Known about the structure:
A: MetI-like fold; 2 strands; 2% strand; B: 8-stranded mixed β-sheet; 4-stranded antiparallel β-sheet
Amino acid sequence: MTVFVIRRFLQSIAVLCVTAIIVFIGIYAIGDPAEMLIAPDASQAERAQVVASLGLDKPLWEQFFTFAWNALHGDLGRSFVFNRPSISLIFERLPATLELTLVGLFIAIIIGIPLGLLSGLKPNTATDEVIMTGSIFGFSLPSFWQGMMLIMIFSVWLGWLPSTGRGQMGEFLGIHSSLFTLDGLKHLILPAINLSLFKLSLVIRLTRTGVRETLPLDFVKFARAKGLSENRIVFVHVFKNILIPLITVIGLELGSMLAFAVVTETIFAWPGIGKLLIDSIMRLDRPVVVAYLLVIVSLFIFINFVVDVLYSLVDPRVRLGDAS
Amino acid sequence: MTPVLDVKNLSTHFMTRRGVLKAVDDVSFTVGQREIVGLVGESGSGKSITGFSILGLVDPPGRVVSGQILFNGEDLLKMPPTAMRTIRGKRIAMIFQDPMMTLNPVLSVGTQMVETVLAHDKVSRAEARQRSRDALGLVGIPSPEERLDSYPHQFSGGMRQRVAIAIALLHRPDLIIADEPTTALDVTIQSQILFEIKRLAGEFGMALIWISHDLGVVAALADRIMVMYAGKIVEAGQVDGVLTEPRHPYTSGLLSAVPAAVPRGEPLRPIPGFAPSPLSRPSGCAFRDRCARATEICATEPMLEIAADREFRCFHPHLGRAA
Lengths: 324, 323
């Protein structure tokens, strides 16, 4: 276990370094942020002064090493645009995105697993057909269109739910979140559903496939021959086996939901991190983009680590010491 | 003495897209108390499906279409599913062929044993664990207390089969159906398991149906033998009689194909041809296409001949000493 953690930690550092280099060079190649930041009517002297103050006059490698040195000391640079530490900009916005993502994932799991079990246990029935057809829609209709339809139906026609913003936030145990007020919850429902629909379909299909694959196995028949109740067979014998692929995919998807909540955040004007990223890329605000990606990569790494630990809990055949 | 199991005219069919597959076709037999019965046949002869039919574990599209399965006088086929569940694992237990597949890989052996106890008896978890541990000890698993917390992948194939046997023994059933339980094991392990099962069956007075394609195993173990071919029992009788003086040409064919049964130096004589596809069996005797003794009359269904302690379905049985 210790060996596993240390090895994983070293791998993570390498991944972070490579990410930082690629993003740094990538943004540098796109364009000169000075062009975006400096007013067109600024004089040559003002121009030179701004460029020098941002360190943009130095060669790329020097800029990178300055950044890397500061990063090692916990400073990921200041936003060119806002003139504030980029990391604090990100952490201001991250909770909103986390909230949206986790609620979306929760919806996908809470609804997806029961529906998947239902259609896996009763294949080729009307229930199964309805669930499967529904999941095809969830898969194939583009997210932005689903978002707009949700707004049209629930906000415009029915007027039940607000369509934009994060609403009022409540505080509980020192955590600020829209989960704790009714108004906040109302604002959260539509974007969370929008974000979860695709994952919901995925969870349904994974669960259904898992059930279909596990049910004919000998150990299920043996469990029946032992005289176990059908509930015990489904919820212990079958379910514990399909948890393994589910955890893998849900872990990976959580990362991608966080990173790509952009579309949903844009549609519902959700003040999350995705919008910040898009704005920063448009303005070539390199420190924010780099810091954002490093944070997201770290989150990915963390999630994968949690998935590996969960694995070893669910599947006794996996031992963390052997994993590489 | 009333038999533990009395199967009458059992037919189990599979409704497939290509037609009705008669996996078990009008099979009747009895199993007496404490009796060990060997059910022998080639792959696809319907012997395993017979076992699953008794426990009501035939998966769709298969279905028991007719017959009676009297277990201690009660017809299992008329029993509601909840009542059937109290029989399975409690009064009739089953051991499967592949020990690598019969235990759930993500649950500890202890969990899988304790749940079996608790499925039928209202006892405390501690007592269920105690009984599980004793059962493991009974089948010769060293340090059973620690092994309860192990997972199936930490056991060898032979040990896993011992665990499966221990699970089958937990409730001291009246009948154990063993579906080729030694086929997947090494020869040395096979004989250990055989010995163990025979000992335990005798010790607890359990009847045993031993399903196998291996005549040698059945000869060593069983009191009576039933030979199945294409969904029907073609010959049944005491082991000694059937193996030394087979009546049915299929039985004698099987014997001539077993290396150990043929005197040294004489060639093995495999049965020509293949078992017919269950979807297109010939009319009458299903064996007639492969049978040297077949005549025109074999195109009609041979009736069950009952002679002394032997029954067989054949128009041209071997009458003297054959094979």
